[in-house]
Amino acid sequence: MECPRCNKQYTEYPALSRRDNQTDICSKCGQDEAMNDFMDLSSIPFADLYAEYVFQNKISSNHYKKWLEWKNTQ
User: Fold this and answer.
1) Residues 6 or more apart from 58 whose CB is under 8 A from it?
2) Which terminus, N or C, of the chain has the lesser number of Cβ atoms within 10 Å?
3) Is 2 exposed, middle or buried, given 0-12, 13-18 or 19+ CB atoms closer than 10 A?
4) Cβ(56)–Cβ(32) below 8 Å
5) Stated pTM of the model
6) Helices 46-59 & 27-38, crossing angle to 10 degrees?
7) What is the pLDDT tens value at each position of the chain, 74 positions in all?
8) How many CB atoms lie within 10 A of CB 56?
9) Cα–Cα distance between 48 and 64 in angstroms, integer?
10) Helix, strand or coil for residue 9?
């Protein structure tokens, strides 16, 4: 299968994206989402923020903005 978040092929059991609770993603991307939610916004590497932005725009037009607002309250 191809992960819609990183666009890489994977064969392991999929993870459920925390962003919409319905999209299957690869295990590494599932871990990345969890870590991005756990870390301070300023500590998240730019590449990870960009991956979040691209993926969240794929699944919802305004989800990334809501996620940033939530992250800023943590």
Assistant:
1) 4
2) C
3) exposed
4) no
5) 0.81
6) 110
7) 999 999 999 999 999 999 888 999 999 999 999 999 898 888 889 998 899 889 988 887 677 888 888 888 87
8) 21
9) 13
10) strand
Instruction: Output the pLDDT for position 70.
Output: 81
Q: Which amino acid is at 74?
A: Q
Which residue in this structure is represented by tokens 């299957």? 24
Residue 14's nearest CA partner among 25, 23, 22, 3 is 25
Give pLDDT, residue 61. Answer: 60
Which residues, in sequence order, are CB contacts of 64 under 8 Å at separation 6+? 52, 53, 56, 57
Query: What is the number of residues in the chain?
Result: 74
Tokens of 40: 């301070």
